[in-house]
From TrEMBL:
Superkingdom of this protein's organism: Bacteria
Record's protein name: ADP-ribose pyrophosphatase
UniProt keywords, alphabetically: Hydrolase, Magnesium
Pfam family, one: NUDIX
Family of the protein in this entry: Belongs to the Nudix hydrolase family.
Residue ranges of domain Nudix hydrolase in the record: 33-161
Cofactor: Mg(2+)
Example of a GO MF term: hydrolase activity
TM stretches of this protein: none
Cited Gene3D superfamilies: 2.20.70.10, Nucleoside Triphosphate Pyrophosphohydrolase
Amino acid sequence: MKFCPQCAAPITHHIPAGDNKLRYCCLTCDNIYYQNPNNIVGTLPVWQDKVLLCRRAIEPRKGLWTLPAGFMENGETTLEGALRETEEEAGVTIPAAHCRLYSLYNLHHINQVYFFFLADMQSPDFDAGEESLEVALFSEHEIPWDNIAFAVVKNTLQQFFADRVNARYPVRMFDVNYGDDRQVDMDCVSQSES
C-alpha cells in the first residue's frame, strides 16, 4: 500500500501508538490499515464410501486435485462460504444441516487459516465449475495421492480415512510450519470429540 484510500496521502509503515505491530498508517488523516489473515473455507464432500475432489483449472497448482474450497467473502459465515465454494467449484448443493467442522489449519507464515467441513452429499450429482477442470468421486485407494494440490488437503483426506475406521470424526486444529528444506510439519494442537 502506497497511498491512503481515504485521502490519497502517502502511507507510512510503522508501529502506531498503543500497538505492537507494524501497520500501514496515514499521517494526514490518522487512518490505520490493519491486515488480517485470509480465511480459506471448504468442504470434504462424502458420498457413500467416496470423497469428491476437484482438479484445479487455476493457479496455484493448476491441474492438481483438491477439495472444493476458496476464500471466504465478507458477509458470510465460514460454513456459508464453504458451501458456496462447493457449489461453485463442484456443482454440489449440500444443506448446512449435513455439515460439521472437521479441521482447522493455521498457516501463520502466509497469513491464512483453513476451515474444512465434513459434508454429507445428498446425491452423487456434481458438475465442474469454472475453477475446476473436472470433478470426481474417489474411494480411498483411487485417490491420486501424488497429485494432491496442497498439504492441508492431503492431511485432511488422510485424517478422514483414518477416522472412518472407527466412525469417529473429531475436530482437529493444526499449526502448519515449513522447514528450511520445505518439508511440511503439521502439529495437531487440539482435538475434540464430536
